[in-house]
Amino acid sequence: MLDDALAGTFSVRDYDETIVSKIESKMAKLLDASRSQQARVADEQRRVHSLISDISHQTRTPLANVSLYAQLLMEQGLDEPQARLARQIVTNTEKLDFLIQQLVNTSRLESGLIRMAPRLADARELIRAAAAGCESDADSKGIRLVAAVGDSPLMASFDPRWCGEALVNIIDNAIKYTPAGGEVRVCAVAYEMFVRIDVADSGRGIAEADLPKVFGRFWRAVESADHPGAGLGLYLARQIVTGCGGYIHARSAPGRGSVFSVFLSKVKDGRKTPARTQVQAGEASPSQQSGGPQ
Amino acid sequence: MNILRTADLKKHYGGPPSGAALVRALDGVDLAVEQGEFVSVVGSSGSGKSTLLHMLGGLDRPTAGSVEISGQPIFAMRDDELTIFRRRHIGFVFQSYNLVPVLTVEENIRLPLELDGSEPDGPFISQVIDLLGLSDRRRSLPNQLSGGQQQRVAIARALAAKPAIVLADEPTGNLDSRGGLDVMGLLKISGERFGQTIVLITHNPQIAQMADRIIRIEDGRIAS
Amino acid sequence: MTGSHDRAIRRVTRRSLKQNRSHTLFTVLAITLSAAMISAVCGFAASGRQMVFDFLGQDVMEAQLYSATVYTVAAVFGAILVATSIIIASNAFRASAGERTRQFGLLGAVGATRKQISAAVVYEGVFLCALGIPLGLLVGNAIHLAGAGIVDALFGEVNAARMVHGANGASELHFIYVFSWPATALAVVVSFATVLISAWLPARQASRVSPIDAIRQTRPSPASAQSVQLSPLTRRLFGCEGGLAAKYAKRHRRSYRATVTALAISVILFIAVSFFASGMERSMAAALPYAGVTAGAEYIAAEDRRLPPPVSARVADRLAEYPGAVIHLEETTEDGQALTVWLAETDDVAGFRAYARSVLDQVIGAPSAGEYRLNTYDASQITAGQRAIMLAVRLFAYGFVALLTLIAVTNVISTVVTNLRLRQREFALLRGIGMSKRNFSRMLGYESLLSSARALLYGIPLGSALAYILYKGFMGSVEFGFAYPWTAVGISVLGVLVIVFAATWIAQGRIRRLNVIEALQE
Q1: Residue B200's pLDDT is what?
Q2: Least crowded by CB within 10 Å, which of A204, B59, C198, C274?
Q3: Average pLDDT, chain C
Q4: Do chain C and A touch: 3 or more Cβ pairs under 8 angstroms?
């Protein structure tokens, strides 16, 4: 009876006067109660997610319009102070757009609208593509971007599109926090069960106490207030990598730069299973779980 | 929800009656671990971390204080009751793997369940075996495996019974740095995959950093 | 032991047995041996009982008495066998439990309860019994069959001499092989119980192992608070290795004591039983002084015409001159007639008779008119029965001693080897810190010396005491004095030294070859 309950296939068999039957009935009630509770929680989540989706969706058009008008304004021939103000409008609009984009991705990922589709592929491709995508940014800041992938193939299990995006976020982050003239280095090592991709920067480093928080939502170090960014990039990257059955680990020393290591599983289906295989009373939903320690 | 909680845990050896010097292995430890967390306890040798782990797993009784797992005070139970509780709700990974040498990999993994007389969840165990890269080693004996592979079997064994908490005692101690990284990675992702709570003790700060939360222990006490 | 709970335990036990092949084989052999002997003893008892009933008839009270005697003797033998079997089997199980302590701790950490762990040791016992007892029964019955054959052959001589008369006109003793279900059942039950008893104590010890100690692989011996100090004399006499040996002896009190006890018991039994055996033989010889007689000469006359002593003495002297003959002179009265008989032990019956004839004629002279008769005869047939009985007694007595020795040797070897194997890790440690092979051998040598000396110190006095008690109890009636069993003592001293050193040497060979690092890591 209990095994069935755990597997979710329980149904009452007999209705009679025996104690077993009474227990079965009570069990059925208990399961019903917990099931409806779970359904309610899931329902609420869905509503929140769709609200977020709606918000981001609906704001796109007005935002695009603001951007457009700001551009038009700038072409009107303004004097310096006015032009500066107009430029500010454009910059901030871009920031807002970027932020909303990230939020949309995040919410879609968390609500399961996006599923990772990991397959076995050569991680070197992933690295090359991501490095290429960040090339121009690095150049404009005067930072050297090195991708050292070696000669042998590095087979791992990942979703090329999404993991590519995650890697880009990380490299982007490294570029952001490295001063001009510095170096961001991407290299890869194969282990028995994992492929590890290191992104090393020569920036200001992260304090030890802050390391676990780095992957949190909207986290930005105090010192980086002057750098543009939404604070969601690393969070998103971690969600993606974990969803592919891997994990990200960071180490750093203040003043000596940081290394962000992406571990990709070599096992074919390391995908995170949506349904939990443990039954625990009052269990939190998956998205609340993976928020990381705050 | 706190899946593990200790209150003022103490373990003393020796002292007046026996005439040997008093050793305070644990001197008042308060600890709480949330469900799903991956926690590491770091300390140098002699700091009391092994003693702490043995207490958490009910392998040894404290001089004072209590340990609660899933709300159950484990030292209120008798020895045999505690053994059965441990079998069903606590998974262990040891530094020296501690696999039964005469059983195959698959038999070793199923052992806690068979001792319980329960039917192992076949599909789940297959999942675990696949995740840990042991699919083509099911019928090997421990002495035919490398250290890293043996430790993976130990992890699979700990996970097989879907315990409330997995306790790992220096799991990378007998492995080289690569093997150690593999093991840590696997612990992390299997914890993530199966929603498993993991408490790990080590003296190696690099290993400790792989966890979500680091707790330092020194001279039998948690360093704040 | 049934149920899926224990399936895993049973599997682990079976596989461990398969892996430790030599140890398993040895244990099965021990069980087979003990089951065989118990079964043989039961079988002999059954045959003995049958023999008594056939001869005297079932309802006669004497029959009950004799069969009770048979049972008592069998029970005594059996008890000794069972006691020794328990010692041997305990050793075997203690060894296996000791070697598997780590495995048990592991199982405990993984979730086996104490009950399950002690069940493992018991299951091992049951499993080995399933192998050993049937084999033992087979061997035991074979021994029974063979033994019965031998005894029956001996009885054949007795019967031929027409020495015995029983009830219902039965005049022959037969000792035949009797297959008795009760005897077999008893043997099985006793053997089984022996093994279970032997397995029980180590089982309890194994289950008490705390998982932590076992996992840590340190078996902190409960060293008593008092430090292990030695007299400076010991150090001086025996050097560093001797000192170490003495310290180990003090530390491992229990296993050391086991070795010494096993040895001492063997010595005691050996001395007592040898004494008993030789005593029995001597009393037999006293009771049947003429068992060796093969020929005779006699003078028969009326009571008043008895042959005067000087004459009979002269005849005896002359007869004694015959090469290789031993003469006994007997004067008796039978049916109102005076009989003077010269009994001779000689190999050449015919020759002696001829010679005797001539002597009689010369010394006494042929009778003129029926006053007396002179005769010579062949006595071999008459005394054949007596000889047979003596042989039988000798066979039983010394056979039992031999059996006992065999048991004692097995016992001691098993104890010594077991104890050494349990200490493998300690030895590896010593080797690891730099003790050379020679030093090591010397240390073991001193240990052997210590155990042997202790054992003999207890064994010889107690054995002599037991011998004296036996003398007083059973042989006080016979008129010869207590002869101290010097030979037996000598043999046991030699035997103990040889066995202990041999066993140590065997076990030591294995330890020396041990890879230090592997052993430490085990």
Answers
A1: 94
A2: A204
A3: 75
A4: no
Same domain assignment for residues C476 and C450: yes
Q: Which residue range(s) make up the domain with B167? A: 36-61+78-223
Candidate from A60-69, B27-36, C102-111, C280-289 with smallest mean pLDDT:
C280-289
**Range of B159-163, C97-101, C202-206 with top mean pLDDT:** B159-163
With a cut of 50, say whether residue B122 has pLDDT above it. Answer: yes
Instruction: Give this prediction's pTM.
Output: 0.70
Bridge partner residues of C378 (DSSP): C295
Among A130, A138, A203, which Cα is nearest to A168's?
A130
Q: Are chains A and B in contact at 3+ CB pairs closer than 8 Å? A: yes
Q: Nearest CA of chain A to the CA of B109: how many Å?
A: 18
Distance in Å, alpha carbon of B119 to nearest chain C alpha carbon: 9
Task: Identify whether C27 is part of a domain.
Answer: yes
What's the Cα-to-Cα distance from A149 to each of A131, A143, A187, A257, B182, rounded to whole Å? 11, 19, 6, 21, 20
Indicate whether C253 and C143 sit together in one domain.
no
CATH number of the domain enclosing C358: 3.30.70.600
Mean pLDDT of C62-71: 73
Do C29 and C143 touch, CB atoms closer than 8 A?
A: no
Residue C517: the pLDDT is 58
Residues of chain B contacting C, Cβ within 8 Å: 18-19, 54, 59-60, 79-80, 83-84, 86-88, 92, 94, 96, 98, 100-103, 107, 110-112, 114-117, 157
pLDDT-derived band at C250, boundaries 50, 70, 90: low
Q: Flag if A273 and B186 touch (Cβ within 8 Å).
A: no
3-state SS, C93-140, equals HHHHHHHCHHHHHHHHHHCCCHHHHHHHHHHHHHHHHHHHHHHHHHHH
CATH code, B172: 3.40.50.300
Token output for A275: 């349904």
Using the Cβ of A289 and the Cβ atoms of chain B, whether some distance falls under 8 Å is answered with: yes
Superfamily of domain A119-265: Histidine kinase-like ATPase, C-terminal domain (3.30.565.10)
Instruction: Choose from B74, B107, B111, B174 for mutation: most chain C CBs within 10 A.
Output: B111
Task: Render pLDDT for A239-259 as a digit per residue (tens, 0 to 9).
Answer: 889 888 889 988 888 888 899
Q: How far apart are the first and last CA of chain B?
A: 23
Here the tokens at position C75 are 């029970």
- Most confident among A28-37, A173-182, B194-203 (mean pLDDT): B194-203
Q: How confident is the model at residue A262 (pLDDT cuts 50, 70, 90)?
A: very high
Give the ipTM. 0.78
- The label of the residue with tokens 């001293």 reads C493
pLDDT per position as a tens digit, C471-503: 776 655 555 677 788 888 888 888 888 888 887
Tell me whether B209 touches chain A (CB under 8 Å): yes
Residue C131 lies in a domain: yes
Mean pLDDT in residue range C116-128: 85
Q: End of a domain among C322, C353, C378?
A: C378
Distance CA A107, CA C304 (A): 142
Measured CA to CA, the distance from residue B74 to residue C115 in angstroms comes to: 20
Strands A183-190 and A144-148: parallel
Q: In chain C, how many domains are there?
A: 3
Domain total for chain B? 1
Mean pLDDT of B53-82: 87
Give a yes or no: residue C231 inside a domain: no
| C510 shares a domain with C428 | yes
Minimal Cα–Cα distance from B122 to chain A, Å? Answer: 13
- At A226 the pLDDT is 55
What is the spatial distance between Cα B113 and Cα C5, in angstroms, rounded to a whole number? 9
Residue C359 in domain: yes
